[in-house]
Design brief:
It is a single chain. The chain is an alpha/beta fold and 356 residues long. Strands 2-1-3-8-7-4-5-6 form an eight-stranded parallel sheet, with helices on both faces. The protein starts with 5 loop residues before the first helix and ends in a 28-residue tail after the last helix. It has a single domain, classed as Ureohydrolase domain (Arginase, Chain A). Helix 8 crosses helix 9. It is built from eleven helices and eight strands.
Length: 356
């Protein structure tokens, strides 16, 4: 008889699948919006992700999923001319109006569902999703895990491009108010997030003034250097612990996942790819850890742009988004057994031979 050594026994125990994720009610919103940057096509991201069949796959994991349709804002492309000539802003009216409506939609959906998932759209939509989530909880209870190659904490005075997909964090974060102009279309967006309740994972393309903002506000940020040194599982564990979203905690977790957090080899059809990013396996591990902690209330998955690259690259990128969502809601990469299921046994039939 072969006996397992102590180490092998531990390994065998660890190879067992984690406990099944609790069944939750999920509301899915499509944010069909791409005016936060200059490349058309991110507004088609929600449809591209849905077309992978992921919503049915999440249902098969035991969850209730309701598709709440798309939010769009056609025909608004006006610019806002700021009094300060240093400011750079593109499409502030469309960004402001769309995100105000998205904030209302998310806060309303959170009253009816355990978790709300918003499919983007460019990353400027996080102004609406995080703000909408923040309206439903006490100001010190909102926690945000921002998984991205970029910090997205520029202001109109520090942005080189003027694109709002590089600015949402600065409008959401308390302590940044003094660095913003008075923009009529964004007066609704009151900061809802404390710096201590924001953690970045995956940074590798951070502008100099964004680094200044991160340091001055004391925001915890794990760049790819830290992930390489410590490992993804350790970094995610530390990040979620720092956010105070463990089991039994009363913080309310929002994950904002930009598909460009993945390496371009994994997600080529996105607007601002940066080499040296997360593998799909590492991205899945991030969301598996989020699932394990069980405190997720809302999520956005953004910047899938099926108009960039070949049709095959677009499908590949949407499929990466599919894998991330499945990991978020309990798909175990070793296979999920249906609850209460058993292997079928053959029926015992009578012996056809006559008695002798």
């Amino acid at each position: 008889m072969i006996r397992c050594s102590g180490l092998l026994g531990v390994c065998l125990r660890r190879s067992q699948p984690p406990p099944a994720a609790r069944s939750v009610s999920i509301g899915v919103i499509g944010a069909a919006f791409d005016k936060g940057q200059t490349r058309c096509g991110a507004s088609l991201g929600p449809a591209a992700i849905r077309d992978t069949g992921v919503l049915d796959e999440i249902r098969a994991l035991g969850h209730s999923v309701r598709d709440l349709g798309d939010l769009s804002l056609p025909g608004v492309d006006s610019e806002y001319t700021a009094a300060d000539d240093r400011a750079k802003m593109r499409n502030v009216t469309s960004v402001g109006r769309f995100n105000q409506q998205l904030s209302d939609r998310v806060s309303s959906a959170l009253a009816k569902h355990d978790v709300v998932v918003t499919l983007g759209g460019d990353h400027s939509i996080a102004m609406g999703t995080v703000h909408g989530h923040g309206r439903t909880v006490r100001h010190d209870k909102l926690a945000v895990l921002w998984v991205d190659a970029h910090a997205d904490i520029n202001t109109p005075l520090t942005s080189g491009s003027g694109n709002f997909h590089g600015k949402p964090v600065s409008f959401l974060l308390r302590g940044m108010e003094a660095f913003h102009l008075d923009l009529p279309d964004l007066r609704w967006c009151r900061p809802v997030l404390l710096p201590s309740k924001l953690v970045y994972i995956g940074l590798r393309d951070v502008d100099p003034m964004e680094r200044v903002a991160i340091q001055e506000l004391g925001v915890r940020a794990y760049a790819m250097r830290e992930l390489d040194r410590l490992g993804v599982d350790k970094v995610v564990e530390m990040a979620l612990d720092q956010l105070g979203v463990g089991v039994g905690a009363d913080s309310s977790l929002h994950v904002s996942f930009d598909i460009d957090a993945l390496d371009p080899s994994e997600a080529p059809s996105t607007g601002t790819p940066v080499r040296g990013g997360l593998s799909l396996r590492e991205g899945q591990m991030v969301m598996e850890e989020v699932c394990k902690w069980g405190t997720l209330r809302s999520m956005d998955l953004v910047e899938v742009n099926p108009q960039l690259g070949s049709s095959q690259q677009a499908l590949y990128t949407a499929d990466a988004a599919r894998h991330l969502l499945l990991s978020t809601f309990g798909r175990y990469r070793g296979g999920n057994a249906p609850e209460g299921s058993q292997l079928p046994r053959p029926e015992i039939l009578p012996d056809p031979r006559p008695n002798r």
